[in-house]
Amino acid sequence: MIEDKNQQRTQLSDLGEFGLIDHLTKNFEIKHKSTVKGIGDDAAVLGFKNKNIVITTDLLVEGVHFDLSYMPLKHLGYKSVIVNLSDVYAMNAEATQITVSIAVSNRFPLEALEDLYVGIETAAKIYNIDVVGGDTTSSTTGLLISVTAIGEVKSNNEVYRDGAKPNDLLVVTGDLGAAYMGLQVLEREKEVYKVNPNSQPDLSPYSYIIERQLKPEARKDIIKLLKDLEVKPSSMIDISDGLSSEIIHLCKQSKVGCDVYEEKIPLDPQVISTCEEFNIDSTTVALNGGEDYELLFTMSQDDYSKIKANPNLTVIGYMKVAQVGIHLVTRADTKIPIKAQGWKNFNV
Amino acid sequence: MIEDKNQQRTQLSDLGEFGLIDHLTKNFEIKHKSTVKGIGDDAAVLGFKNKNIVITTDLLVEGVHFDLSYMPLKHLGYKSVIVNLSDVYAMNAEATQITVSIAVSNRFPLEALEDLYVGIETAAKIYNIDVVGGDTTSSTTGLLISVTAIGEVKSNNEVYRDGAKPNDLLVVTGDLGAAYMGLQVLEREKEVYKVNPNSQPDLSPYSYIIERQLKPEARKDIIKLLKDLEVKPSSMIDISDGLSSEIIHLCKQSKVGCDVYEEKIPLDPQVISTCEEFNIDSTTVALNGGEDYELLFTMSQDDYSKIKANPNLTVIGYMKVAQVGIHLVTRADTKIPIKAQGWKNFNV
Q: Is the confidence at residue B221, as pLDDT, over 70?
């Protein structure tokens, strides 16, 4: 029936990921009192007495989310865990367990999967999580990895996307745009390799940005830091799709506006130099690059003194009332509306 | 690196699913005290005070687990939920939440995904579960569905695969082999359709077996029934890969043997007649067909009086000490060892 040419057809690319999930699940009802939070945040929240469980899942598809011509399988295993843990931390929770399912074609030998699982095991060790389940199956083409991560948080300590208030500070961890620029370098080297398989590129000037692409880390340390500093964010999200779309998520769900200062956006020197080399605007990269797996959160200005000396945290703007909108304040002191770049995977 | 021709290559088909999961995860350590049970049962078990959480995940791949030329998307959505709920019930737990992730190529219009989600929503309503999360992404080919199901069970009420004791009764719910024979009929009709697209087959003689293939149900009712009857199984598993491989799982994990009586295996009349039509042995189909989503459990003989009148439950054999092995006692009263048919998906 899928091939019926007469049926009404709406292209998925017209909706994008967020429109699609909203559209498909808008009629779904919540029936269990243990369901504290369903679809619409970094993770779902289930309530059990004084402890809440968060649960989140991600699907990584070969040819869409990763390219095995430059992604070692160990790193892929590691990264597939990290992207899920990042969602758990974005709820202000401690990650405790994961399940890992893979679909794999016969072109992969056992040794390839062993490499993948070494990466998974390494991430599990470093982040102190248990691998508690999974499923392996065959695929007709390529490799697919589905990870579900589970975390724990004391009841009422979880942080959603919808708690930001006007005048709250907008804070980002680490620096942005590096994973995207690492990908640009890897894509360029792939093209060079196609022309001359004997070329030995010197990638050392790009070591940081390539590592950010191939072996990202999740900000478990920030959850501990915020606890130690006694700062509870009013809203939080992890930066997977890019700063601009995450800012829009926080603003829309919290029903607030925002001013973000271009000059405050943290960039690593390697990102700046590589952007110059590729002739790309570094602010555009920081706003839209994605895969940073940093945390973006809002917090009360009253707590500013607790965070101001911390090198991991950068205040990049202020939340406003919804009516003023969401803007980037440029270095030239002009205001540009921040728009979602949308989710381009359906155009691949 | 995956294309390096010099690396050691072990074919995945040499291991099969169970060997593969065991092999890949054998070094994984459990670190959290909330992890009551990790890999190796129908679901993982996480402990929280007097309630345990079970969690299980399954990946369904187009061309491996389903064929859209005869699987309506509504049914596929429904079935993708059912196969996971079945694992939750096999732990003696109540299913409460699911997450659903899909990877889909641009060949699918929105309306196709709406159909898929209608099936998911229908299952969620009927089985009283909340859809709490998910992820949509693109795929380069075909459709892929990953479902994670979460359930709750009172601490110590969960039932594992490893609790069967010699002399326990081996009990199966419903009847077996129907989903497999339904698939044979659908495959045959697909071939007929290829030759003559205008043929209008009369499938009414196969209505039950086709429904078992396209729209299976999970035995939520049995969990309630066992509770009402005050029967706690000593071990339990759901029948997804086929009766013989599930019996082997229970026996190996419980370190027991088993006699299964061919004449006791419950078969629907439509299975028997269709097996005759296709010239296939119905016992072979019941043992190896799979996708029944019935429950297979063991229980103390002391409780036999509680279940003997129940039409949903059939005693098909007895557990023995491990040394005597695992056998089928045929209608001719000969004993044949039951062997795993293995998991053939890697040979697709």
A: yes
Query: What are the pLDDT digits (tens) for B105-144?
Result: 888 888 999 999 999 999 999 999 999 988 888 888 789 9
* CATH number assigned to the domain covering B13-154: 3.30.1330.10
Of the candidates B44, B19, B253, B65, the one whose C-alpha atom is nearest the C-alpha of residue A114 is B19
Reported ipTM? 0.86
B169-347: same fold as B13-154? no
Distance CA A111, CA A124 (A): 20
B 4-43 residues inside an 8 A Cβ radius of A: 7-15, 17, 20-21, 23-25, 27-32, 34-35, 37-39, 43
Q: How far apart are CA B229 and CA A231, in angstroms?
A: 52
A12-154 placed in CATH 3.30.1330.10: yes
CA of B80, closest CA in chain A: separation in Å? 14
Return the residue in B146, B155, B214 with the most chain A beta carbons within 10 A, the one to mutate for interface testing: B146
Cβ–Cβ contact B128 with A under 8 A: yes
Residues 6+ apart with CB under 8 A from A198: none
Q: Which of residues 286-345 of A touch B (CB under 8 A)?
A: 345
Which of residues A222 and B48 earns the better pLDDT score? A222
Q: Is the Cβ pair B128, A31 closer than 8 Å?
A: yes
Q: Are A241 and A290 in contact (CB under 8 A)?
A: yes
CATH homologous superfamily for the domain B169-347: PurM-like C-terminal domain (3.90.650.10)
Contact, A55 vs B134, CB < 8 A?
A: no
A186 touches chain B (CB under 8 A): no
Sign of the alpha-carbon dihedral angle for B290, B293, B294, B300: positive
Q: How confident is the model at residue B341 (pLDDT cuts 50, 70, 90)?
A: low
Instruction: Give the three-state DSSP class for B313.
Output: strand
CA distance B133 to A41: 9
CB B82 within 8 A of CB A158: no
> Mind telling me how many Å the CA of B181 is from chain A's nearest CA?
22
Average pLDDT over residues B313-329: 97
Q: What Rg value do the Cα atoms of chain A yield, rounded? A: 21
Please, what are the averages of pLDDT over each run of 10 residues along chain A (348 residues)? Answer: 54 69 81 84 83 92 90 95 96 94 89 93 95 86 91 93 97 98 94 85 92 97 96 96 94 97 97 97 94 98 95 97 97 91 42
Distance between first and last Cα of chain B: 25
- Residue B280 pLDDT > 90, yes or no? yes
Identify the sign of the CA torsion B136, B140, B145, B150.
Answer: negative
Q: Where are the domains of chain A?
A: 12-154, 169-347
